[in-house]
Design a protein that fits this description.
With 424 residues, the chain is mainly alpha-helical. The chain has one domain. The protein is 80% helix and 1% strand. The chain is elongated and about 90 Å long. The relative contact order is 0.10. InterPro entries: 7TM_chemorcpt.
């Protein structure tokens, strides 16, 4: 039975392959700094080549391609009726938010290259090597981390499939012989491909942030398990009344608490640094989710309206499915941050249990152990959940805020749509 427990599972056997694929795929989109499992530094010429490619690719997305679509804007927004044109405007606003997020991502990647590649990535690698290598406790923190990774992996692939289906759907549609209609349909197909590339560009950094925070959550859960084991040692202190044995156990407990406190400082620093680096991109992700949610409501309205059922089409259904999966993607990111907040509270409660034992009250316990506990407790209590650019907390409250705001905008869109119908 022990042999089965120690046998590596599917994730442990193929974890390096997942990370290598993620690093390679990120390089295609110019995200050179994303390296999930760094092995050795890049050679000088190769590193310069990849960084140069990153800048060229990013500037092409930010400058060259938008100029092309801006020049053909009227043809891009041409529609046969006012309702379809309103849907096009909402979709264009969605892509515009993605574009702004790409600009913010490029700026953040350029400014925080060392912070991402040498700071967060290397700090996580050290924690994984030093903190997790010697862990022999319950394996459920690792299993939940793997579940998050599987869920995110399948969700991202579903979103990619849905968007590819949407691109093919936009290339079909009306088989009109009008050259203007054919040119407009071809331009919208190109615009859908451009929107897909923008989403991939921003999603790489969002996935990296999600992966980093999932690791933080795993480390906090492992840290709590180790604190619980230290708490069991405290119970044993009450049984050893001989002073020599008691002082030896106290000394080992002090050393253990000092090591766990240092681990907590490293974990907390990783969490705060990752959040600080990615907050601008996350704010763009929040706005994109808001527009997607708004698009979802409005397209559902188009589907259920009696006078628009004849116009309900496959691209509309694809856009609804995509908006729903994008909402789920944002929800799981906020869920991880919500659970990190809960783990911080649980850690504070575990630390509080130490002082509840008579054997830990002075003068039973020497001043050093009491000081260790006090420092650890203050370190946890000083933690404050970070905010997105000082505006929003990235937890479940953000999901509720997005849903309520999108519904309010949806009502405004419905009123505007009814106005268009009455003024025909």
């Amino acid at each position: 039975q022990r042999g089965n427990m120690d046998k590596p599972n599917f994730w442990e056997r193929h974890e390096a392959k997942f990370y290598t694929f993620g690093h390679f795929y990120a390089n295609i989109y110019g995200q050179v700094m994303i390296d999930y499992m760094p092995h050795e530094p890049l050679k000088g010429p190769l590193k310069v080549l990849l960084i140069a490619y990153s800048h060229v690719f990013s500037l092409a997305l930010i400058v060259v391609v938008p100029c092309y679509f801006g020049y053909h804007y009227r043809l891009l927004m041409a529609a046969v009726d006012s309702r379809m044109q309103l849907v096009l405007y909402v979709g264009f606003a969605n892509t515009l938010i993605k574009y702004v997020t790409v600009v913010l991502t490029y700026m953040a990647n350029t400014l925080h290259f060392r912070g991402i590649n040498h700071g967060c990535t290397m700090r996580r690698a050290r924690l994984e090597e030093d903190f997790m290598a010697g862990y022999r406790g319950p394996r459920w923190p690792k299993r939940r981390f793997e579940t998050f990774m599987y869920y995110k992996f399948f969700l991202i692939n579903i979103m990619m499939i849905v968007q590819v289906c949407g691109i093919f759907a936009s290339s079909g549609g009306d088989e009109s012989d009008d050259p203007s209609a054919q040119a407009s349909r071809a331009l919208r197909t190109q615009f859908a491909i451009y929107s897909f590339v923008l989403w991939n560009y921003t999603e790489h950094m969002a996935d990296y942030f999600f992966w980093m925070n999932s690791n933080v959550l795993k480390y906090l859960r492992v840290l709590q398990q180790q604190l619980m084991r230290a708490l069991q040692r405290v119970r044993l202190l009450a049984r050893s009344r001989r002073r020599g044995m008691f002082m030896a156990n106290c000394s080992r407990l002090c050393d253990r608490l000092a090591a766990l406190r240092q681990n907590f400082i490293e974990i907390h620093a990783l969490y705060v640094e990752s959040f600080r680096i990615h907050q601008l991109q996350l704010l763009g992700l929040t706005l994109t989710t808001l527009i997607n949610n708004l698009t979802n409501f409005f397209t559902i309205f188009n589907l259920v309206s009696a006078h628009s059922l004849a116009n309900a089409s496959y691209p509309v259904l694809i856009s609804v499915l995509y908006a729903f999966t994008y909402y789920l993607d944002t929800y799981i990111v906020t869920l991880v941050n919500e659970q990190i907040k809960q783990e911080m509270t649980s850690l504070a409660l575990v630390i509080g249990q130490f002082s509840g034992y008579p054997s830990l009250q002075p003068p039973s316990l020497d001043q050093e152990a009491s000081l260790r506990l006090e420092q650890f407790s203050l370190q946890i209590l000083q933690h404050r959940p970070p905010m997105l650019c000082g505006l929003l907390y990235l937890d479940r409250r953000l999901i509720y805020l997005i849903a309520v705001t999108a519904f309010s905008y949806f009502i405004t869109l419905v009123q505007f749509d009814l106005y268009l119908q009455n003024t025909r």
